[in-house]
Amino acid sequence: MESLWMDFANSMWRDWKGGGPSVDRLEQQEWQQSFTAKMKYAVNQPDRTELERARLLRDRLLRYAENLAAGVLLKDSDIEYLNEVMAGGTVTRRLMAAGSALRMELEPAGSGWGQVLADVAADFARMLSEQDISRIRCCDNPDCRWVFYDDTRSRTKRYCDDKLCGNLMKVRRHRARRKAQAHKEENN
User: Fold this and answer.
1) pLDDT at 1 over 70
2) Distance from CA of residue 99 to its chain's centroid?
3) What separation in angstroms does the CA of 82 have from each of 86, 88, 92, 140, 149?
4) Confidence band, pLDDT 50/70/90 cuts, at residue 102
5) In DSSP terms, which residues pair with 149 in a beta bridge?
6) Nearest one of 86, 129, 124 to 108, comparing CA atoms
7) Do the Cβ atoms of 1 and 157 come closer than 8 Å?
């Protein structure tokens, strides 16, 4: 399940293999342009204040996701913060024809990073109100911690990607068992 807020929260990239540097993609102009292009926005590079507000939102979204994954719900102060961020953007309501049906669309009326952050917070709020929040996960690879939505039937997905983080952790567990076994045999 792709979502705007998860893409934004995962802008803090960590070396999932471990040992490498972390990269704050929020600071990269290329990432900013790619992210806002997905939203169909053409905004300038954020100034220092906007970048700090973006980092604060990202860090809070990560904390909220970790809490939700642990079964801890948002506090009233968290909800107030999200409402403040969402108030930084405006929308125009449009009724749109979709074949023989009609649907209501919310189109951003503002522009700039205030609108971008408001839309990210709104996407998170929409998820809280419309999705099963017990499916929010953080990758069990301690070097990754990527946020994802567990859409498996069994609700047991532990890694953001079973082929990458899942295999890496399986190999690490296997090597740790072999090392412990060798150490045990050495001491006997």
Assistant:
1) no
2) 33
3) 6, 10, 20, 27, 20
4) very high
5) 136
6) 86
7) no
Coil, strand, or helix at residue 106? strand
Angle formed by the axes of helices 48-69 and 76-86, nearest 10°: 140
* Termini Cα distance of the chain: 51
DSSP string, 133-172: GGGEEE-S-TTT--EEE---TT----SS-IIIIIHHHHHH
**Mean pLDDT in residue range 24-49:** 93
Q: Rounded to 10 degrees, what is the CA torsion of 37, 39, 42, 46?
A: -90
Residue among 50, 61, 29, 56 at smallest CA distance from 111 = 50
Q: What is the pTM of this model?
A: 0.84
Angle (nearest 5°) at CA 159 between 142 and 163 = 110
The CATH architecture of the domain made up of 4-160 is Orthogonal Bundle (1.10)
C-alpha closest to that of 143 among 22, 25, 26, 24: 22
Domain map of the chain by residue range? Answer: 4-160
Side-chain-facing half-sphere of 68: CA atoms under 13 Å: 23
